[in-house]
Amino acid sequence: YVYPGIGKNLRTPRIFFSAPHYSSRATTPTGIVGLSVGMDKIASLLVTSNPHAILGLMTEDGVVFAASSPAYLYKTVLPVSAARLDEIRKTRQFGDEPLEAASFQLDNERVDLDSRRYFVTRGRLNDTNVEYFSLYPENQGAYYGFIGAVAFVYLLIVYLGFRLAATLMQLKEQQRILH
């Protein structure tokens, strides 16, 4: 499971990962393996050489939790009801952030923003509840938006995979030492 939010103790933006842990003798999970990563590391992957391009990650409700431009953090970019926004706020998943609507919505193939028209590319990261999006100026072509989104998703998956693998190796070593 992937859960973005603002950490309750550190009060910093983080992304939390969890997965069931199975012992060699059990057929049902014996616990949960969890880790969190500061969003600054992930946000650095979103920086693009094009100052007009926008890359980001959002929850399935459309709340942006990582973006190439900090102006879009904790804004909603998908239509979401007031009741659902109140539910999200009550969980304090994003701390005291107001969760207001962004100046654009990603429910079309193109959006107008700051006197520019952008191509929209979106998709879900495999086996997660997280979506990525990219907005590239129309005059630069949809090709660049698609290539940028694919490269971004690839880098993110590689980075997170290495982090998770390293954590699992540490847990296995600790388990070996204890038994």
Summary?
By secondary structure, the chain is an alpha+beta fold. It contains 3 helices and 10 strands.
Explain how this protein is built.
This protein has helices at 39-46, 82-91, 142-178; strands spanning 2-6, 13-21, 31-38, 54-59, 64-67, 75-76, 100-101, 110-113, 116-124, 130-137. By secondary structure, the protein is α+β, with helices and mostly antiparallel strands. The strands form 3 sheets. Strands 5-4-10-9-8 form a 5-stranded antiparallel beta sheet. The protein has a 3-stranded antiparallel beta sheet with strand order 1-2-3. The protein has a two-stranded parallel ribbon with strand order 6-7. The longest helix has 37 residues, at 142-178. The radius of gyration is 18 Å and the shape is globular. The model has no long low-confidence stretch (mean pLDDT 81).
